[in-house]
Amino acid sequence: MDATGQQEQHTGSAGGDLYGVLLYYKYAEVPDAAALAAFYEAHCRSLALVGRVRVGPDGVNATLGGQMNALEKHIAEMSSNDLFVGTDFKLASCDDPVDERVARECGFTSLSVRVVKELVTLCCNPALAPPEISSAGRHLSAAEFHSVLQNVAGTSLNAVASAEKKEVVVLDARNVYETRIGKFNVPNAKTLDPEIRQYSDLPSWIDKHAEQLHGKSILMYCTGGIRCEMASAYIRSKGEGFENVFQLYGGIQRYLEQFPDGGYFEGKNFVFDHRISVGSLKENILGACLICDSSFDDYSSRCRCSHCRMLVLVCPTCQDSTEEYACELCQKNGKEPCQLSTGQDCKIQRGLSESFEKPSISYHNVTSKVSWSDGSEQLKRLRILCLHGFRQNASSFKGRTSALSKKLKHITELVFVDAPHELSFVYQPIRGHCSDKPSPLSVTPKRKFAWLIAPNSHCNPEQNWRAADVPFDPLQYQQQTEGFEESYTYLENAISHMGKFDGILGFSQGAAMAALFCRQQQKMCGFPKFRFGMFCSGYPAPVGDFGNEPIKLPSLHCFGNGDGHDRQIANRASAELAGLFEQDCCSVVEHDMGHIIPTRSPYIDRIKDFLSSFL
Fold this sequence. Notes:
Number of strands: 28
CATH topology of the domain at 382-422 and 480-613: Rossmann fold
Shape: globular
CATH class of the domain at 382-422 and 480-613: Alpha Beta
Largest sheet: 6 strands, mixed
CATH superfamily of the domain at 382-422 and 480-613: Alpha/Beta hydrolase fold, catalytic domain
């Protein structure tokens, strides 16, 4: 449900029981991003605030929710810091979050503070330096922006301080799903909608359509202003003919506060919090259902494209008859909605790929409905591909996660698969009292596997145990840099045999591999092919370059807290992996139970909540 008629501009002290949302950003040099992030963590928790804070060397970007009096205290505290001089704190009262599922997906059920390399990623090519933020376009207040639009058909462009009249173009810097429910509509002005899936696609669109911008007065806008900062700097970096770039300061939010009737803005402003969208006094609907094309602009159902996971508009009637969708951009690329089908018992025999022979892997693909003991039915269980850790196998990982499987049995089906690299049988010698020779092992060795291996590793299995050359190193994962190509091909072949999965779960090295696998799918296809990912005690494998573009996948990251409870994978390594994913749909669960996947409350409840949003 949108917040039309429910949001109020903040004009003064608010009552203690009122709920509010605060948005602000500040581009400035941050000497110690980690220290500032730690301050945010402690300060926001003391005020019971939820939402997202991103701190980078180039500034801060925050979206917070909580009681209005707490938000006012936060503003007062940050305003006392010289770093935030001149910051536009956009505070609005609204209803409390009523839809737990929407609030959770938007990150408004907990606090997430992250240190990032840059506040917004304009270009996903790490070889290209971002434009200088000091070159950003000139800020226009909502009144100035409106004045320009009023005079587009006239003879003066005084509000843009132009020495000569130039043709005005209005450029939307937002994603296509945002523009579908609201945009500026200005008579006699050329409005450009890049129809991009994500912000990092904007530079390539600008490059391809530079002739439409050259020599023009360019008026840019976005939700709250931050995306226009870097994008306007990018346009101006093109040099002569691209100097006249202006941006709506405070974004659409400030404009609608200044012009409650909507002014030249039609429809609703999409926002990245539990409100979903904010409208004006107008009640016009710009959006349309993806399936039947009827007027519709409500994203609260959180329907997503089956291919790229972008939000799509689907009316309630069509939601009842259609379970999977292809967004307009995927349809333009010839993709159709995936078809759901009931499964059957299957066997994967040896030879999932020509390069590797593997033991037979049995799995069961459940039917669309699962019966409860009382005879009622629930929705289709989520089918999750599970990747074990280093020197484990599918059987041992299944055993280790038996408690997790029981706790999730009504909503998931966990499918386990061995990694392709079979390891030698090694053990840590235990020397006897009267001999320096290692004591022999009499147990029958069980086959162990890995997704990634160290250079020059001996991966041909031996028939007998051999002693390890050196003591086991808990940081050995940092040297495991080879074998990804074979593992990627192996998993693609396995999935083609086993059928579609809703999600992927990885533990330790399996989590690192799962992230690499999703990243590679995104590079090749534009997006991962799963609906979600779960990464437990993971780390960013030192394989290739993740680049600046986040992995576009709803993700849950579960790992030991910073008190040294996980002796295998450092807390900061797991946190770094979480930072590589799209933060708007990234959840983190930190626990104190070591190198395991926790199954007791409150951790299992957080895991269930995450999975339930995909049922």
